[in-house]
Amino acid sequence: MTHPHLVNAAWRDSSEGYAHLRPLFEKMAQLEPGPEKAALRDELVTGHLPVAEHIAQRFSHRGEAHDDLLQVATVGLINAVDRFDPDRGTEFLSFAIPTIMGEVRRHFRDTGWSVRVPRRLQERHLAVSTASSELAQQLGRAATPSEIAAHLGLSKEEVYEGIEAGNVYRSQSLDEILSPGEDNTAMADRLGVDDDALDGVEYHETLRPLLNQLPARERRILILRFYGNMTQTEIAHRVGLSQMHVSRLLAKTLKGLRDGIADS
Amino acid sequence: MAEMPLVRTVAGAIAMREDYDIEAIADVKLIVDEACSLLVDRAVAGTQLVCRFEIEPGTIRFAAAVEGFDARPIDDTTLGWGLLVSLVDDITHGVDTSRPLPLLRIDVLVRRGGSAP
Questions:
Q1: Collapsing DSSP states into helix, strand and coil, what is residue B112?
Q2: Is B28 on the interface with A (CB under 8 A)?
Q3: Could A160 and B25 be called an inter-chain contact, meaning their C-beta atoms sit closer than 8 Å?
Q4: Is residue B98 a part of any domain in this protein?
Q5: Smallest CA–CA separation between A81 and chain B, in Å?
Q6: Distance between CA A229 and CA A124 in Å, rounded?
């Protein structure tokens, strides 16, 4: 399978760009595997990268990210460099172009779908969506499943399958930016969970009036213990009481607060 | 909430089998989605969202209801509600307060080929 247009485009480049690479293939074929051979292979791959780019470009309007396509085309190019046999007497490009195209096609066939769907359904979906846009043009409105079925000569059930298969063509990434608008946060950032601190808010709000009712000394001890994270001995030092006394006061205050929360 | 994809799929399947056109099928899914999210926002956590589809030739009626925290009617000034109104042929919402927890519901009606924007 050759593509005259592509071959020509690449050929035009070859007169300027790729000719100097040709002898390298013969050199590489004679070398034993080793660092020298690997370096030659690298040079051949990078030298031919524009070919992969040309081909990736041709497929770029089909809804796959350009970078992914370029990646796949490059893999195809690497395969082509590895498999090319200069003794056959063919030009590298006439071998490489179909190889790279094949790789890109396979990518569309196998991984274009987010969820793997049987080949039969992939084709059904393609037929249904083509028919639906053709019919929309003819009718001036969106087509119904029965119209599509009649158009394609399929049963309605078969059309239903084709429509439903389309639901999984593309999945949504959790990192996807939902809209280019002002708050362009990714999907994952919008999935809500109950805040762990919510219960804390409730306690906090119940506690506040109770804390306000405490005598100044008890409140101070409580604050030093739980907000200042001090030990009872440190607190005893601060407020000029014995550690035992602080301990008793803390226990009494906490009990009072617990009872207060239970009552309210 | 975890069952929303199921409700959406059922809605799509019904619209498809009732031979709604391709765009209307997508609309029906959107309507069901939107109505349910308006209700789920107000529902008591852990309670059920009850969905009912009634199919008559050429029309789909969809009713959804939840037990809400309070008896405030559904806010019909939100974007979600506006979107619903623009997609359906008829829509009502209401609150049933005769029960321990108020029951909030949304009923919509979508006609085949009738909801052209």
A1: coil
A2: no
A3: no
A4: yes
A5: 47
A6: 68
* Domain assignment of residue B104, yes or no: yes
Q: What are phi and psi of B94, to 5 degrees?
A: -165, 170
Tokens of A158: 């078969």
- Residue B73, domain member (yes or no): yes
ipTM, 2 dp: 0.75
| Number of domains into which chain B is organized | 1
**pTM over the 0.90 mark:** no
Domain interval for residue B45: 4-111
CA distance A75 to chain B (A): 37
Contacts of A142 in chain B (CB under 8 A): 21-24
d(CA A263, CA B86): 51
B11 occurs within a structural domain:
yes
B22 reaches A (C-beta below 8 A): yes
* Nearest alpha-carbon partner for B15 in A142, A169, A122, A120: A142
Instruction: Summarize pLDDT for B5-51 with one digit per residue, the tens.
Output: 889 889 999 999 999 988 888 889 889 988 998 898 888 888 889 99
Reading the block at residue A117, the tokens are 């769907």
**How far apart (Å, rounded) are the C-alpha atoms in residues A126 and A120?**
10
Continuous segment of H or E residues that includes residue B64? strand B59-67
Nearest CA in chain A to B116: A141
CB atoms within 10 A of CB A256: 14
B47-104 confidence digits (pLDDT tens): 889 999 999 988 999 999 999 888 888 888 877 788 788 888 999 999 998 888 899 9
Closest to A252 (Cα-Cα) out of A224, A215, A227:
A215
B16/A142 Cβ within 8 A: no
Distance between CA A92 and CA A144 in Å, rounded?
50
Q: The domain that contains B43 carries what CATH number?
A: 3.30.565.10
Between CA A162 and CA A166 the distance in angstroms is 7
CA distance B49 to B59: 22
Quote the CA–CA distance of A29 and A37 in Å, as a whole number.
Answer: 9
> Could you give the angle at which helices B4-17 and B22-40 cross, rounded to 10 degrees?
150
Round the CA-based radius of gyration of chain A to a whole number and report it.
36
Identify the DSSP state of B72.
P
Mutation pick from A125, A137, A139, A144 vs chain B, by most beta carbons of B within 10 Å, is A144
Task: Say yes or no for a CB contact (<8 Å) between B13 and A160.
Answer: yes
